[in-house]
Amino acid sequence: MKKSFQVADQKSRCPWCLGFEEYVAYHDTEWGVPVHDDKVHFEFLILESAQAGLSWATILKKREGYRKAFADFDYKVVAEFPESYVQELLQDPGIIRNALKIRAAINNAQRFMEVQQEFGSFSKYIWGFVGGKPIQNRLASMSEAQATTKESDLLAKDLKKRGFKFLGSTTVYAHMQATGLYNDHLESCFRFSEV
């Protein structure tokens, strides 16, 4: 059995983050914090779609590689990536070298800006799916956690209709958790009352 990373401060945390130091830091400072900044939403859309079929830990370890490869998550720049750069990215060990996912990121940047144009911001659009405030799930244990919700189903369906790729309901729900549309910290976690 794999041993969990030991955190010196002994705070009660969601057990999924106890793998390595960066994972704990991500949990303690970012995961579940309500995001209203479009650039941050775009970053998580890129990372979450890259995660499809992989672990979040794998993506988190490559986050800096993604930051460099994807123009510090500037969606206006990513939307204009030429095919020649896609070929460069396919050789970049700092990211997941999957042509479909790389091309999906470029496509999603273009669709992202279309949503901004229609709604004024991507944040306004996405927060509309939860009534503008975080849903508090009040989980007592990880066994109560869901893979999808009715809101993630609706959002994923709408994103697909708008032409987004690699953003099914499970991936979308992970995005909603990461960006604070849901507070899915366990009630016993010290972050539950902080986010």
From TrEMBL:
It comes from the Bacteria. InterPro entries: Adenine_glyco, DNA-3mA_glycosylase, DNA_glycosylase. One of its GO terms (biological process) is base-excision repair. Zn(2+) binds at C14, H27, H185, C189. Signal peptide: none annotated. GO terms for molecular function: DNA-3-methyladenine glycosylase activity; metal ion binding. SUPFAM superfamilies: DNA-glycosylase. Keywords: Metal-binding, Zinc. PANTHER family: DNA-3-METHYLADENINE GLYCOSYLASE 1, DNA-3-METHYLADENINE GLYCOSYLASE I. This is DNA-3-methyladenine glycosylase I. It comes from Algoriphagus locisalis.
